[in-house]
UniProtKB/TrEMBL annotation:
A Pfam entry, by short name: Rieske
Annotated ranges, domain Rieske: 91-191
Highest classification ranks of the organism: Bacteria, Thermotogati, Deinococcota, Deinococci, Deinococcales
Protein name: Rieske 2Fe-2S domain-containing protein
TM region positions: 16-39
Obligatory cofactor(s): [2Fe-2S] cluster
GO (cellular component) term, any one: membrane
Keywords (A to Z) from UniProt: 2Fe-2S, Disulfide bond, Iron, Iron-sulfur, Membrane, Metal-binding, Transmembrane, Transmembrane helix
A GO MF term: metal ion binding
């Protein structure tokens, strides 16, 4: 009986590049560029790129406290930017800032102001977290000085309501900012799961694959 072995991804990749190089000789430089554009290195994510997962703590992404754990008591109804921090295989802390789409925005509102479609199970004491990257074309969202109850994407004026699941309330974004479920832990903020939908640029299916791949890191 024939036995099948899982292909070594590095060998497959090298084979593919060799084929691409051979093909390029026949069809010209553009063929090479096109072929190589589709080559993804094996193990394309690293501990610094893995999406936020349960148990990650959130750390400040900017300012004097950059890299330090968020203090829940310092959060406000304005944006605080944060990165998830997980651990590598050796248990060493890793801030997941090598993937720009891992950027988060975190708020603290009076709890009664937070309404559906926010996932209230992922909110504690008015603290709520979302992806900080616009779902239209991937710009960073920011506070909206002229309409402070909303947040605004500066690129094409996309607007979201952070008290209502970051649903879209203006402009071209096609869907809400995904929410990161959190809980408060030792005065800080800890993820209790992953974003409840794909961050910018990924389909649902790609997102699921990425989360699966993340388990192998
Ligand atoms: S990138 Fe945000 S509205 Fe276009």
């Amino acid at each position: 009986m024939t036995k099948y072995r899982r292909a070594d991804p590095e060998i497959s990749r090298r084979k593919f590049i060799n084929v691409a190089l051979g093909t390029a000789g026949a069809v010209g430089g553009l063929g090479l560029v096109t072929a190589l554009a589709g080559v993804r290195p094996p193990n394309r994510i690293t501990a610094g790129k893995v999406p936020a997962i349960e148990g990650d703590i959130l750390v400040y992404a900017e300012g004097a406290q950059s890299g330090q754990p968020l203090k829940a008591s310092d959060l406000t109804d304005k944006i605080t930017r944060a990165w998830p921090q997980g651990k590598d295989k050796d248990g060493k802390p890793v801030i997941k800032k090598d993937e720009p789409n891992n950027l988060l925005i975190v708020f603290k509102f009076p709890p009664a102001e937070i309404v559906a479609p926010t996932d209230l199970k992922g909110v504690q004491d008015g603290v709520v977290a979302y992806s900080g990257i616009c779902q239209h074309l991937g710009c960073q969202v920011g506070d909206n000085p002229s309409k402070p109850e909303t947040i605004l994407c500066p690129c094409h004026s996309g607007a979201y309501d952070p008290r209502a699941g970051c649903k879209v309330i203006g402009g071209p974004p096609p869907k809400p900012l995904p929410q990161l479920p959190i809980k408060l832990d030792a005065g800080g903020v800890m993820a209790t799961g992953s974003l409840n939908g794909p961050y910018y640029g990924l389909t649902e299916s790609d997102w699921k694959s990425l989360l699966e791949e993340a388990k192998t890191i």
